[in-house]
Amino acid sequence: EPHHYETQPTEVAPGRVRLVASRYFTIERLRPEGELRIPGGLPYYSVLICLKGEQAGRAWLIPAGSKEVNVAGSGSEWIWTYAGA
After folding, report:
1. Which residues of the chain have pLDDT under 70?
2. Is 72 within 8 Å of 33 (Cβ atoms)?
């Protein structure tokens, strides 16, 4: 049967809200004021999807251990998902 999971959105930093966090994956909503930066050297793959803004409809697969990713972000909205904690 379906798994029922209660979520509690949590503000991690200004413009960054953790929507779901499980042992398997984390999903965050990002609404940057300026340039969006995903730190480099992360030990897991992640997916960055633009929902609103210049890049709307585009998605990026960011490999584990990659360099920092920077994209124009002012006025945009993103979903960022990565391995769980």
Report:
1. 85
2. no
